[in-house]
């Protein structure tokens, strides 16, 4: 039951924040900067696989250690670092290997990766601590 609460906390917050980001805030930016690179419809299987892997990664590498240390500050800092590493893996690889991959998107994505993962980590920390 505790594992389910943790997965739902992390996944729920991540899903809501990324839905708002991708669906409303950054949607026009991504199409303007990368329209020719984007699929007409996202590959939902690949997207689901990313979210499942990412949620488990945040839980294992950020949330569980933060809970053990009883430190939301740890969740904040390591969450931001984990987000930077994960999003840099994607964006910097694209920048290194794809024609016309926009540097502007790389910079925005790195900042977003840090922000969303830090927010997910801190929010999940408090939810999990309150419910378990």
UniProtKB/TrEMBL annotation:
Asked if Phosphoprotein is a keyword of the record, the answer is no
Q: Name one Pfam family in it.
A: DUF2177
Q: Which InterPro entries match?
A: DUF2177_membr
Its keywords, alphabetically, are: Membrane, Transmembrane, Transmembrane helix
Transmembrane segments in this chain: where? Answer: 7-26, 46-67, 74-90, 110-131
- Top-level taxon of the source organism: Bacteria
Q: Tell me what this protein is called.
A: DUF2177 family protein
| Species of origin | Candidatus Mycosynbacter amalyticus
Organism classification: Bacteria, Candidatus Saccharimonadota, Candidatus Saccharimonadota incertae sedis, Candidatus Mycosynbacter
């Amino acid at each position: 039951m505790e594992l389910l609460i943790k997965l739902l906390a992390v996944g729920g917050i991540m899903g809501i924040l990324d839905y708002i980001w991708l669906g409303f805030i950054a949607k026009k930016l991504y199409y303007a900067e990368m329209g020719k690179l984007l699929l007409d419809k996202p590959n939902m299987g690949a997207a689901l696989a990313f979210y499942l892997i990412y949620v488990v990664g945040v839980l294992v590498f950020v949330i569980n250690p933060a809970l053990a240390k009883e430190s939301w500050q740890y969740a904040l800092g390591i969450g931001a670092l984990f987000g930077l590493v994960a999003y840099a893996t994607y964006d910097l690889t694209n920048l290194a290997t794809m024609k016309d991959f926009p540097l502007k998107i790389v910079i925005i994505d790195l900042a977003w990766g840090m922000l969303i993962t830090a927010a997910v980590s801190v929010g999940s920390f408090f939810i999990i601590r309150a419910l378990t």
